[in-house]
Amino acid sequence: MQKQLVSHFKHKIVLFLAPYLVFFLVLLLIVMALFYQDNNNDCQSTDTTVTVTTSADKEAVAKSIHDNLKKISGVTEAGIAGYLGNTENESGFNASIVQSNATFNESTAMNASISGYALGLNQWDNSRRVELLNYAKSQNKKWSDAGLQLDFALNHDGTNSDLLKQDLKMSDVDDATEFLRAKWERGGAGTTSKRQSYARAWYAKFSNGSSDTAVDTATTGTETTQNTDNTTNNSSGCSTNVAQGMGTSGAPVKEIPSAYKSKIKDTNFTATSSSNTYPFGQCTWYTYNRMQELGTPVENYLGNGADWGKNAKAKGYKTDSQPHVGWAVSFSQGADGADPTYGHVAVVEAISDDKTHFLVSECNVVASGTGTVSFRELTAGQGVTFIQGK
């Protein structure tokens, strides 16, 4: 009888507590789900919604883009101005424009082999144009949506998005503008001054006197910066357009190609000289250091990369149109992918067994501005001058 009472009492307790146990179980599951979701966000995109005004007023669109870009950590007013200057030159802030004011034709636009049919704010062409259209379809939006285009530029344009974000953190308006034209837009040769003029005007309008740029904000946006004295070293030196391809036979690599490893005896590519007055990380800075290391030095103040050939010759250096191991090589504007404004300069490290190619070491090609050394295999052609150190 006593056992029956105990059993009956336990049964009553279970019935009494059952609803509470269910409630606490459900609550625990909810808490665990929220905890998992919060932690899972660490692996998800942190992109914020990009909404750009559709106003026909150019300044309103520019302001809307500016405000969206300001949300990104680490951006500068100078970097944003560079983007705005390029965008104004490309499209006039008209997100629905087709190059040459052509009528949009989807079959044409979806053919990546067709050039000269660029779309949108930044005039995406060829495969980038197709990728923009496909992204728009995946989002169920029109390709002409300015917000979608800015989102695409920042987050979905492959390695180009990384280049854009790199630019947005730059501290000089002119440099940021030219970086985008040469390495992100990859076109518009001869329009640098115009783009920089636009960028300066937007900087003056939106920066509120910010001190994160070396550009004088008192400018009206109409002046242009020119390299008036190529024998002084006040310029950035040079840069090279990686995305357009590097020369006739090879892309830049960070390791010496296997075919050339046995040919290079001095592999101290990181040697620096205290007498070097060229800007850190530029091709001119590296070439000066490397030539010093090889025991055939060149002097300071040879100008931009494109100017080294003529300036060195005028100063008594021996020059040639054919490569020689241990000589510097000056690339004129645009030669072998060199910057169309400043040109480029590198060092010849080795000649191929069949004498048809040569290997250069260089800087400011991979991870621009960081002092990273890289290598390319090239063939001698137009627009290059080889310089023997003294």
From TrEMBL:
InterPro entries: CHAP_dom (IPR007921), Papain-like_cys_pep_sf (IPR038765), Phage_lysozyme2 (IPR041219). Residues 258-388 form the Peptidase C51 domain. The keyword Transmembrane helix applies. The chain crosses the membrane at residues 12-36. The keyword Phosphoprotein does not apply. Keywords: Membrane, Transmembrane, Transmembrane helix. Residues 210-239 are annotated as: Disordered. SUPFAM superfamilies: Cysteine proteinases. This is Surface antigen. It comes from Leuconostoc citreum (strain KM20).
